[in-house]
Amino acid sequence: MDAFTLTLWILRLAFVALIYVFFFVVARALWRDLRAVVVGGGQALARLVVVGGPEGGPKAGTSYQLDAVNTIGRDVNNSVVIDDTYVSAEHAVLTFRGRSWFVEDNDSTNGTWVNGQRVSTYLPVGYGDELQIGRLRMRLERVAPP
Amino acid sequence: MIAVQRGLWRAGIRPRLRLRELGLLLLAGLTLAVGWASLQSFRAGELDMADLTLLAVYLATVAGVHVVLVVSGRRIDQVLLPTAGLLGGVSLLLMERLPQNLAAQSFGGTLLPLGPLQTLWLVVGFVVLGAVAVLVRSDGWLRRYKYTWAALGIGLLLLVFIFGESVGGQRLTLRIGPVAGQPSELLKVILVVFLAGYLAENRALLTMTSTTIGPLRLPPLAYLLPMLAMWGIALAVVIIQRDLGAALLFFLVFLALLYVATRRASFVLLGLLLFVAGGAVLYQFFPHVRVRVDIWLNPFADPLGAGYQIVRALYAYGRGGIIGTGLGAGLPQVGQVPAIPAIHTDFVFAALAEEMGMLGGLAVLGLYLVIAERGLRIAASTTDDFRALLAVGLTLVVVIQAAVIAGGNLRVVPLTGITLPLVSYGGSSLLVNCGIIGLLMALSDRGVEPPPLRDSRPSRFGWLRRRAAARGAAR
Fold first, then answer.
1. What does the alpha-carbon distance between residue B175 and residue B47 come to, in Å, rounded to a whole number?
2. Phi and psi based region of residue A92 (left: phi greater than 0; alpha: psi -120 to 50; beta: remaining)
């Protein structure tokens, strides 16, 4: 085998090998992205865990991470978006003030309920209380400290 | 340096480095250069790069798109451009390598053979990709006019049906003046836009159960009708046009989107049953469908007639083996034509797998997996249903098409005449697929980075900033 044939052979294998290098570099970058998303998810004040709701909606056990001020409704600009026709576009606001949570109803069509009691203006919500928005029932839960 | 940056900021331009994209692009460029050297050295019989113009023009275009993205400062996905760039580059190498007389078109007196012609389309395609990625900011124009889009798509198909030209038994090409195009390429994007819009709007209604047939729970039938009608019309016209590949692609994308929107496995099951029933009927009544299935089951029954291309492709894989013959060394010609007539369009995967081997073929299929991962991730990170469904649909159009034609080439599924996205020769296909990648990048856009917060603590370079501010005030 002369030098040129060898060079050609190396070039040809290097071409395919480089595509694999590209593939693995991309795969590593994507893997890192995925881990960053999983790891960086924390630091929420509390969360809303779905207890029950209409068929086809979020499954029981789904949770929404909460900040200090959370708007709840069907509109995509809310911090907790519930895609259900029984939920108003801007349905309610859930806020953390001082030491406890309060939920305020924004004149929604079907109302906001805390433990079966309809919210007329606003009501305090404790951890473990059940919040009903439209047909979706959710429980406010403390986030376990890291 | 600081003055330049201040000037740019004042003009409203905030460049943002895209280091990951730059790194991947350099790697892709190196890969293509090595491939080019391998091809040209084999041709010359000595170490040679020959005329580098085509590769240089292509790489410069991709680099130009990168620069435009950097200058725009928007936080757009950084993996899609290098991946599409590498696929396009592989296409360029293959088209440069194949017999140049397979396709030719003259522009203003100069006749462009296959290689330069494909380079031209790639350049136009990547310009479209960059323009769509940077300029498309809002999706309102896609979302709001979904029925208009659907009507436009059907109109386009009717136009082809009436005025189209027949090429090889398929009536696909529409010629306006010197430019010929295949509208069914555009139709797949229009279909995805319509389905995404319709499903996003009526998702809740479609998951309701009102009709029950045995174990199947169906939504109110009225809400399924527009979709079924759209699907039926597209399918019927496509079958009349004898474009089986497009019909298969439409159907699979339709089922996948329906599943993504409703999370109902029963729809998929029903769709597959319909598919089997439809396939059986088509097999009975349409001879061209029967031929396709028969040559898939046994290509050696008629190795010089209907099964010719598949048999030749199977031989090609055998010659290629695991590491391939090397660029330029495979693909024997019969007389003046290549052994596989459609080697530059439908059978480009056979050319690829012969000269780059099984390893090369798998690597290229891996690149489509990268596009799939990125597209689905973009869909998962969007904030509303329409954008999510649109991203899923666009991704699946590219990936399913690649799977269907690669499978057809490899005799895994019946062969259908569609292109391998971004690799096959063909202007319409390249433009549309580049547009799809551009649209995916636009959907991944997280806007311009907010300006950095003012730091109240004195920084180590405070004196520098103060001096710059003083100079600015003096001027």
1. 44
2. beta
Q: Are B310 and B295 in contact (CB under 8 A)?
A: yes
Tell me how far apart the alpha carbons of residues B213 and B195 are, in angstroms, rounded to a whole number. 25
Instruction: Write out the DSSP string of A67-119.
Output: -SEEEEESSTTSSEE---TTS-TT-EEEEEETTEEEEEE-S-SS-EEETTEE-
Q: pLDDT tens-digit profile of B282-301?
A: 888 888 788 888 889 988 88
Assess whether pLDDT exceeds 50 at residue A146.
Answer: no
A81, β-bridge pairs: A73
Chains A and B: how many Cβ contacts under 8 Å? 97
Instruction: Check CB contact of B20 with chain A, cutoff 8 Å.
Output: yes
A124: number of Cβ within 10 Å: 11
8 Å CB contact of B28 and A15: no
Q: Are B271 and B216 in contact (CB under 8 A)?
A: no
- Scan for tokens 């009544």, then name that residue: B285
Check residue A23 and give its pLDDT.
94
Tens-place pLDDT, residues B171-207 = 667 776 556 677 778 888 888 998 898 888 877 777 7
Q: What per-residue confidence (pLDDT) applies to B307?
A: 86
Q: Which of A18, A30, A55 minimises the CB distance to B30?
A: A18
CA distance A81 to A73: 5
Return the H-helix or E-strand segment holding B174: strand B170-176
Q: How far off is chain A from B188, nearest CA to CA, in Å?
A: 28
Residue B220 contacts residue B211 (beta carbons within 8 Å): yes
Q: Which residues of B touch A27 (CB under 8 A)?
A: 370
Whether this prediction's pTM lies above 0.90 is answered by: no
Contacts of A22 in chain B (CB under 8 A): 24, 27-28, 31, 82, 86, 367
C-alpha to C-alpha distance for B18 and A6, rounded to whole angstroms = 38
B420: amino acid identity, one letter: L
SS3 A88: coil
